[in-house]
């Protein structure tokens, strides 16, 4: 079970209840009244635990698992060990997410303003918020209901935050407008000046950065990620985007809804990205581009041109995935050849 | 106009005054007495706004703009919409920077030491400084005149900071000497130990890092960027360098004047870089190299050898730009071929 | 000498004592009673200083050095300038580390709990700790003996920290268990939620992250580095690992003992890495891989498959080093060819 120093376990739940919560179906013959007390990884689970199988890399763990129950894709059901109860789902990971949320529910914050927090008298804090020690809330800032403002967070003057947001410890926000249920991880930097200046041999001249960062509902922004405010237009992060750690998002960038941006990606200024775009770790996207909805960008790619909706690209400079795989295969072959290099 | 929750608008200004402030020339026939009240992006501007055109990608916005005036390169003037007043400049972005600075001037900080700031009694704070809540100023630190020390900043023992510096929220400095007008963005880490140790199977042995970080005048250092102090010599950042977010600068690195280092670049220890070198996003530069003044390093490059002054390189390993473009073109062609790969 | 604003010099020491401390041997004829007062870089050292030569790139500095003594590999001894006393070591850098530690010893913290620190009444702080201003220690946290908790650090509820650990300013820890002598650099983020959610067009659903970060003895974790806690299993960092700045380590990753992870590396979730693995700057390692002990991964590599113990790889996708060098050489040749590209 999860370490009780850090996690509070709810339950137990019957298999029937877990099926209901998760939208999964009980496999034929499964006992709806069987009781489970926790979730666990397949290689660590016991008879009272429920696990899940999503990635086929862990098939061996599934086959050998002692878990009392497991959420699996129907195709995997025949390989289950004898006696394991099954919940069947076309998306076992999503079904598991619901189950794990039931066992480890997120509770509303215990309202508090720590004595060492600094809240400007002109700030407006709605009901049910928790402002932890050392947090600083600037003038005219507005914080919605039931927000958790972590220790040593800094919310700049005028920043507006919706309901049920979580700001992780030591995060900073300025020049930003946040929707509801936004989660900012520790150390994220939102709303500082973009990297805008007129270069010149007599010195680089700073261009005032007059926009904001506007963040939709249900967005998560990872630890130590940096999102600069717009230069004139806003930097915009659409509803439901998931942004990992150490990502850089430049000024004026727009992300549509539901984008998934993996760790250490960099997106240069003024690039506009559609809905449900996915970018793999360490990918780089040049400025002033248009990336269509549903595009997929492989890890470490270098995107230097517009990408059409639904296209998958890889490599640096990034090309359609099939071309990149061919490039890589060819380079691989050449690298394995034993003979001499061709003459220069 | 910029969101008044975050920005204070000055002005209005006449076109003649804006020409004077920016060094741009009024186009023939432009009315020097026409009054403008704000800057705006070309696609959002109205009759009382002044915009600018710098990147030809935005030509369509220029042609369709309702801005009352615009700063443009003289070559673009013929394409201006009827009735738009023009300020002509060979460097429209720089001219715009001056104009935007006039409309949105940086004001000196309102002097204050917040009650929750911690200032060691042996620290020396010059006149006109603002020390925000939760900031910590260590023993014997020296802060120049009219500095802004952001909330929850930590200035270590003995650190010396010049006049009119800005330290963004939650930044930390130790073992550092800063010039005047330095801007450190939120979460930047300056002066911690370099990554120096003697490796060995019996354990890696830490080597004391006995240098400092010495930062010149007018330098900007981006959010969550990390600059380690020297191992013995100092790490040095020359006057006027602009360093973006999430950049890593190793111990003993020296940057000359006016370098531009884009986000997520990494520069390994002891590399010496000349004046006005530019490095694109996510480029990596190996340690112990010499990079000549004026060199340009493309985004995502991997620099593994010295670079001559003025040279432009790309790729990994980085080669002269023309060679890299040729490599990329060739790989692109091979990737697009439909036939089979050659036999192994 | 090192700037006395930041460093306290011990000594002087005789050459004989320095030989003893470092395990190096005095070269024949060297005067064991000669007295040295400081360490210095070879190009800055004087008669009372001792330097070291480790990287042959600095041979010219060695030959011209005025250092009174130097630690060198025996092979280099014949090139020493006349009059320089030599300490001979097969690993001069390690020997120098011992000598520099003697001149600049790390002293135990002066115990203190700053008035502006926030220590939850249920936290347990062992003897000899220093809790600097603005630090926040959560409920039921446990801090071992003689720890330094830097200014504005946040230690979350239930976190356990061993003896003689150092937490740099503004670092944050949650859901973490640390061994002894762990050094966390400023701004590092340890223990936040991993990037785990079930993707879907109706929105991405967060999966509770129920593991911890478990850190062994003698580990160093660099500035602004991010280490997510496990999703169910723990994220584990083995004894003696050295992790540089701005590194991303995903949930469930396991590092063995003594790994060296250079700046801006990213390691995706659930990858297991053996002992004494080295990864160069900006390398990326995909999730769910196995990297054997002693493997070496070149800077900027993209590792997309398992790596056997002891193997050295480079490139993206990463291949054995010899193959990558051949690929690079071939590409380099093609890029330098003056003729036309082959027809498409």
Write the layout of secondary structure elements.
The structure is a homotrimer of 344-residue chains.
Chain A: E1 13-14, H1 15-22, E2 25-26, E3 35-36, E4 38-39, E5 49-52, H2 59-64, E6 69-72, E7 85-88, H3 92-103, E8 112-113, E9 118-119, E10 124-125, E11 130-131, E12 136-137, E13 142-143, E14 148-149, E15 154-155, E16 160-161, E17 166-167, E18 172-173, E19 176-178, E20 183-184, E21 189-190, E22 197-198, E23 205-206, E24 213-215, E25 220-221, E26 226-227, E27 235-237, E28 242-243, E29 248-249, E30 254-255, E31 260-261, E32 266-267, E33 272-273, E34 278-279, E35 284-285, E36 290-291, E37 296-297, E38 302-303, E39 312-314, E40 319-320, H4 321-336
Parallel strand pairs in A: 4-5, 5-6, 6-7, 8-11, 9-12, 10-13, 11-14, 12-15, 13-16, 14-17, 15-18, 17-20, 18-21, 19-24, 20-25, 21-26, 24-27, 25-28, 26-29, 27-30, 28-31, 29-32, 30-33, 31-34, 32-35, 33-36, 34-37, 35-38, 37-39
Antiparallel strand pairs in A: 1-3, 2-7, 22-23, 39-40
Helix pairs in contact in A: 1-3
């Amino acid at each position: 079970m999860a370490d009780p120093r850090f996690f509070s376990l709810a339950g137990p739940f019957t298999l029937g209840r877990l099926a209901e919560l998760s939208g999964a179906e009980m496999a034929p013959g499964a006992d709806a009244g069987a009781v489970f007390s926790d979730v666990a990884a397949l290689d660590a689970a016991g008879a009272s635990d429920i696990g899940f199988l999503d990635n086929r890399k862990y098939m061996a763990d599934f086959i050998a698992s002692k878990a009392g129950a497991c959420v699996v894709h129907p195709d995997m059901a025949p390989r289950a060990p004898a006696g394991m109860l099954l919940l069947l789902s076309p998306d076992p990971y999503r079904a598991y997410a619901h189950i794990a949320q039931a066992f480890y529910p997120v509770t509303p914050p215990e309202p508090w303003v720590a004595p060492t927090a600094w809240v400007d008298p002109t700030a407006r804090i709605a009901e049910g918020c928790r402002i932890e020690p050392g947090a600083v809330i600037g003038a005219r800032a507005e914080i919605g209901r039931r927000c958790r403002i972590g220790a040593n967070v800094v919310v700049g003057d005028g920043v507006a935050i919706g309901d049920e947001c979580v700001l992780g410890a030591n995060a900073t926000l300025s020049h930003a407008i946040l929707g509801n249920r936004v989660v900012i991880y520790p150390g994220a930097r939102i709303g500082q000046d973009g990297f805008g200046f007129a270069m010149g041999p007599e010195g680089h001249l700073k261009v005032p950065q007059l926009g904001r960062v506007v963040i939709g509902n249900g967005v998560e922004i990872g630890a130590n990620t940096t999102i600069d405010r717009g230069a004139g237009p806003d930097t915009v992060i659409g509803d439901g985007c998931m942004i990992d750690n150490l990502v850089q998002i430049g000024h004026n960038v727009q992300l549509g809804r539901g984008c998934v941006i993996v760790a250490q990606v960099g997106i240069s200024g003024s690039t506009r990205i559609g809905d449900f775009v996915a970018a793999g770790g360490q990918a780089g996207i040049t400025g002033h581009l248009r990336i269509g909805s549903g595009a997929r960008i492989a890890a470490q790619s270098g995107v230097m041109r517009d990408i059409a909706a639904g296209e998958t690209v890889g490599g640096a400079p990034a090309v359609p995935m099939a071309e990149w795989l061919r490039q890589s295969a060819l380079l691989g072959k050449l690298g394995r050849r034993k003979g001499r290099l061709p003459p220069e």
